[in-house]
Write a structure and sequence with these properties.
Helix content: 40-55%
Largest sheet: 3 strands, mixed
Number of domains: 1
CATH architecture: Roll
Shape: globular
Protein name: TPM domain-containing protein
Mean pLDDT: 91
Strand order of the largest sheet: 1-2-3
Number of helices: 6
Strand content: 5-15%
CATH class: Alpha Beta
Order of helices and strands: HEHEEHHHH
Length: 120
Amino acid sequence: ENRLRQEIEDLEKDTGYKLRVLAQNYPDTPGLAIKDFWQVDDRTIVFVADPTFGNIINFNIGSLIDLDIPQSFWSRVAGKYGNMFYWKEKGEDASIEGAVMAISRCLREPTGASNCSEVF
């Protein structure tokens, strides 16, 4: 948890993008309250980790991030780290950490035609 917190803080400091991770189990969710609490804006990624429906990973992406990062990147991250086989074998924590690190690498890449084309 501390390692992820530091990565997320460094990412925001280095890039200006905000990444917020919400670990929940539906139906026990905070709902829209997080929007004000986290001051979600157009440069915010809300990463929802919830094992209730199979794929543990879902994203809500700010509109300015959508301009820089291809939509396919988010699908690839969810497909790799969020699928039930991955998180049941490696654990929910490994899924969340893997996705956070992939997002961090992507957001640190120079913007261009091949931006975020790989998910490691």
